[in-house]
Fold:
Amino acid sequence: MDAATTITAGVVVLTVVTIETGGMFVLRVVTGHQPVNDLQRSFFRAGHAHAGVLVILGLVTLLLTSAAEVADPWGWLGPVGVLVAAIVMPAGFFLSVLGTDPERPGRLVALLWAGAVLLAAGLVSTGVSLVVTGANG
Structure:
């Protein structure tokens, strides 16, 4: 791995500590120590789960493109899309239900859709670049 990939991987691994901290918040929510309504409870749980899964998926795409020596910009474009989605999508879950007893998600739910687009683009870019690199190898 080159230095940029190694540093990025290290930073991504360190972000898992923030997800762990979010897990403590979600634990307070599900045990009733943090007052929330059903909408907030479900969105907070979904946001936390998506953060964890997408960060690991982003790390996997980064390592796969590095190991396959995918040419730039494709070697970093896909993983960056997935890693940005790992921030944007959970933010949509959390930020769209802030407040006291919201009845439905707020406007920031648009971040969910933006994250979904980034995730799809990152995964397609990673998948295609791996297939092309393998076929040309």
In short: The CA atoms of residues 69 and 75 lie 7 Å apart. The chain has one domain: 3-136. The radius of gyration is 17 Å. The chain has four helices and no strands.
